[in-house]
Design goal:
This protein is of the alpha/beta class. The chain contains five helices and seven strands; from the N terminus they run E-H-E-E-E-H-E-H-E-H-E-H. The chain has a seven-stranded mixed β-sheet with strand order 2-3-4-1-5-6-7, sandwiched between helices. The longest helix is centred in the last third of the chain and has 23 residues. It starts with 15 loop residues before the first strand and ends in a 5-residue tail after the last helix.
Length: 201
């Protein structure tokens, strides 16, 4: 490489790094999604569920869950040569929400993962991003054996604005998780463009 150009005389591309949050209720698949899509070994801060936490950790519907995120998950994915996403998975339980403000600083947008069997678990995340005007998309994690609901029905149940994307996904599948992240980036870009438009007089 010589003077900022590669050996093939192509200009060196400095990628833009964007921060995306992956949020949602307890056991909805946040750690799974980050792990499925990350091109690096994801950083995880998981601890075993304990008897002490049973009174406050609602494992209804996720009885087989044995661990929980206590700080964050972190991963990275390159969408294009000039675009890299840094993924920060938030903890799902109420007692760890004091971390959300730290994680949300500088975030371009967010994924709110939802499980239609426990849809109320993502209300708090939706409210959090709406209050802070952080663009987000709802990604319904389609668990095996769970009844599938159309995106419009999920939108109505969550009382979402019409411009909030709602997509179905499999958090275990890399291609599906990547599609979710693309949706988030596109929505954030659309929201940012709308904010830059001069107000009508």
């Amino acid at each position: 490489m010589v003077f900022g150009r590669s050996e093939r005389n192509k200009p060196v591309v400095e990628p833009v790094a964007l921060k995306i949050l992956v949020a949602g209720g307890f056991g909805v698949g946040k750690t799974t999604l980050v792990g499925a899509v990350s091109e690096i070994r994801p950083l995880r801060t998981e601890e075993e569920l304990s008897e002490v936490g049973r009174p406050v950790d609602d494992t209804g519907g996720v009885e087989s869950k044995r661990t929980t995120t206590v700080a964050m998950d972190f991963g990275r994915i390159t969408l294009r040569e000039d675009l890299v996403l840094y993924l920060f998975g938030t903890p799902g339980q109420d007692r760890f929400w004091f971390l959300w403000d730290e994680l949300a600083q500088g975030a371009l947008g967010a994924v709110v993962l939802a499980d239609t069997r426990r849809l109320e678990d993502c209300f708090a995340a939706v409210d959090y991003f709406e209050r802070r005007a952080i663009p987000f998309a709802i990604a319904v994690n389609c668990f095996e054996g769970a009844q599938q609901h159309p995106a419009d029905m999920v939108r109505e149940a969550l009382d979402l604005d019409g411009d909030v994307p709602v997509v179905l996904c499999d958090a275990r599948d890399r291609a599906s998780a990547k599609d979710v992240l693309i949706t988030v980036v596109e929505n954030a870009a659309k929201v940012a463009a709308g904010r830059r438009e001069p107000a009508a007089t």
